[in-house]
Design a protein that fits this description.
Radius of gyration: 14 Å
Bound molecules: ligand CA2
Order of helices and strands: EHHEHEHEEH
Number of helices: 5
CATH class: Alpha Beta
Shape: globular
Number of strands: 5
CATH architecture: 3-Layer(aba) Sandwich
Strand content: 15-25%
Largest sheet: 5 strands, parallel
Length: 142
């Protein structure tokens, strides 16, 4: 099984700034943990600060080979119609993940443009959200 883990803007700074909000684990630590926890899964990890680059990666996933996507679109969750359209075009399941509870923060974070076209959303469970999303995709395929 091949899962694409897509992280949007600023998530490359995980573990380096604002650890009180986003935790002390780096993105590399998070990726290593996923590989360790799911040895049978082939992962592609991708992070970009650029909207179009994230769209390119989603379009590539649509071309085949990827069985499911876990996406943390970062702030693009709240603003990007382009990412929403790219997700909507996918036939494979997509789970949106947010490290923080977006409903417990500023008002603008409560609305995700991506969520309605995703299979589901995990928000506020820290980095474990990625693990839960992967577990869901694995179970779904079994
Ligand atoms: O909670 C999440 O995962 C978010 O997607 C994080 C985004 C935010 O805009 C969303 O509303 C919710 C921000 C990512 C910023 O990542 C940082 C990581 C480390 C240090 C500073 C920022």
């Amino acid at each position: 099984m091949h899962i694409l883990i897509l992280n949007g803007p600023n998530l490359g700074m995980l573990g380096q700034r604002e650890p009180e909000v986003y935790g002390s684990e780096t993105l590399t630590d998070l990726e290593a943990r996923l590989r360790k926890r799911f040895p049978g899964v082939q992962f592609t990890f991708f992070q970009s600060n650029h909207e179009g680059v994230l769209v390119d990666e989603l379009n590539r996933a649509a071309d085949g080979g990827v069985d499911g996507v876990v996406i943390n679109p970062g702030a693009y969750a709240h603003s990007s119609y382009a990412i929403r359209d790219a997700v909507a075009a996918l036939k494979i399941p997509v789970v949106e993940v947010h490290i923080t509870n977006v409903h417990a923060r500023e008002e603008f974070r409560r609305r995700s443009l991506i969520a309605p076209v995703c299979r589901g959303v995990v928000t506020g469970l820290g980095r474990r959200g990625y693990e839960l999303a992967v577990q869901f995709l694995v179970d779904e395929r079994a």
